[in-house]
Amino acid sequence: MSKLALFGGKKIRRKPFVSRAIVGKEESKRVNSVLKSGILSGFIAKSGDGFLGGKEVREFESLVGGYFGTEHVISVNSATAGLHVALGACGIGPGDEVIVTPYTMSASATAIIMQNAIPVFADISENTFCIDPGSIEQCITARTKAIIVVHLFGHPAEMNRIKALARKYKLKIIEDCAQAPGAVYKKQLVGTLGDIGIFSLNQHKTVTSGEGGFAITRNARLALGMRLIRNHGEVIAGNIRLKDISNIVGYNYRMTELEAAVSIGQFRRLDFLNAHRINLARYLTEKLSKFEGLTLPAEESGTKHVYFVYPIRIKESEARIPRDVFVKALNAEGIPCAAGYVRPIYLEPLYQKKIAYGRKGCPFTCGFYKGNAVYSKGICPVAEKMHRKELVIIPVCRYPETPRDMDDVVKAFQKIFNNRDKLRKFQ
Ligand SMILES: Cc1ncc(COP(=O)(O)O)c(C=O)c1O
User: Fold this and answer.
1) 134 and 110 in contact (C-beta within 8 Å)?
2) Best mutation site among 85, 153, 179, 199 for ligand 1, i.e. most ligand atoms within 8 A of its Cβ?
3) Which of 165, 208, 242, 309 keeps 20 to 30 A from 180, CA to CA?
4) Are strands 72-76 and 97-100 parallel, antiparallel or unpaired?
């Protein structure tokens, strides 16, 4: 039996897995031509042509609109900015509550606080790690105005049940699709199922311009609101005689021509990159299914999972290896992986101490807020269990890796399972 790398044995894999962006000829050509033109941003904060940005920005928005079949695309400089403009355009403000999952990148919830509103955390489903509609319903109060649905790790959330709740309680739905561009729920691309869909183009995403993002919507009023908040809208509102100026407090969330030029080339490869991820993930699922105590990623019926990462659950009692020891052993064999994802967001000091703006507890203690959001340990037991005990994330199912690279993952699993007895003594 070969000795585990954790105990000084030879690693299964020496070659690092690729974790950088794959940049093609189109991106280089476009970036060079933008540089030559000397117009690195086409935005101006006043009414007129420049209000909507430059040539590359518009071409990118039109490409994205064609892909999703949505009339309105609002490029921004991050998904965080996208979530912020979306909440503003939906009319979210002081005193309002917005329901969100705690098992997501922090910005999905922080954007709510950026509007002086209150995040209320609903638990997640064990199968998909996305927000659980049953838990959402328990969180709804007279103050609830919206739900932020995150399609986590590339798997769509249960949108039919969430849409039914939104209809029943008159709530807006903002889909956070940062990790799921191209994922499908019941024949519809995620991002087109709610009121607004938000996407990220940061370095770690399937298609990237380093930093960047965009919002999509079919609703012209929401689109106008987002465009105004993106680009200093308070100086435009008067010129266009906007009737409702609430939340038209503008930021600079504008995308540069360079980012848009990169995003165009990147976005054209989205379907190819997703297909590659899906093939590698399914290959892994087939090979890993022989190991006991593992729950491999679900692909719920009627969904297309785009595998931003490959998430598995390990049941210590059946696999007979503690999750954290398993992760250490896998890392030592040269397979990148993580124990859990993020700490459930409400456990961070911002929520535990209820300190955001200033030292007096705003927006949690704001006079307009009549509720009492609870952030104590235990409010989302499934998210806590996944994080503390069961979830393992493997981020290697991506281009240009091949099934041969996945074989190294399988070999490392086999080696660790063969050495379980030795590992049990290791903590
Ligand atoms: C689910 C989710 N939402 C929002 C964001 C924020 O994206 P950005 O870095 O583009 O602001 C991320 C980024 O990792 C994310 O994964």
Assistant:
1) no
2) 179
3) 165
4) unpaired
Q: What is the pLDDT of residue 189?
A: 98
Quote the CA–CA distance of 23 and 20 in Å, as a whole number: 9
> Pairing mode, if any, of strands 172-176 and 184-185?
unpaired
Tell me the H-state helices in 74-118.
79-89, 107-114
pLDDT grade for 425, boundaries at 50, 70 and 90: confident
Question: Closest Cα to atom 7, ligand 1: which residue?
Answer: 79
Neighbours of 115 (CB within 10 A): 24
Nearest Cα to 318, choosing from 296, 288, 294? Answer: 294
Question: DSSP code of 131?
Answer: B
Name all residues whose Cβ lies below 6 A of ligand 1: 78-80, 104-105, 107-108, 150, 176, 178-179, 200, 202, 213
Q: Compute the average pLDDT of residues 378-401.
A: 98
Q: What is the pLDDT of residues 336-345, one digit of tens each?
A: 999 999 999 9
pLDDT (tens digit per residue) in 70-109: 999 999 999 999 999 999 999 999 999 999 999 999 999 9
DSSP state of 156: P
Residue whose tokens read 């993002």:
213
Domain annotation for the chain: domains and CATH numbers: 25-269 (3.40.640.10), 270-341+383-424 (3.90.1150.10)
Strands (E), 111-236: 118-121, 144-150, 172-176, 184-185, 188-189, 196-200, 213-217
Alpha-carbon distance 145 to 173, whole Å? 9
CA of 200 to the centre of ligand 1 (A): 6
Q: How many residues does the chain have?
A: 427
What is the crossing angle of helices 257-268 and 25-37, to 10°? 160
Site to probe by mutation for ligand 1, drawn from 87, 105, 128 as the one with most ligand atoms within 8 Å of Cβ, is 105
Among candidate residues 207, 215, 236, 183, the one with its CA nearest the CA of residue 51:
236
- What distance in Å separates the CA atoms of residue 161 and residue 194, rounded to the nearest whole number? 12
Cis peptide before 102 (omega within 30 of 0): no
Token pair, residue 152, equals 């986590």
Q: What is the pLDDT of residue 427?
A: 64
For ligand 1, the distance from its centroid to the CA atom of residue 102, given in whole angstroms, is 14
pTM of the model: 0.98
What is the whole-number distance in angstroms between the Cα of residue 32 and the centre of ligand 1?
Answer: 28
Q: In angstroms, rounded to a whole number, what is the distance separating the alpha carbons of residues 321 and 389?
A: 11
Distance from the CA of 149 to the center of ligand 1, in angstroms?
A: 13
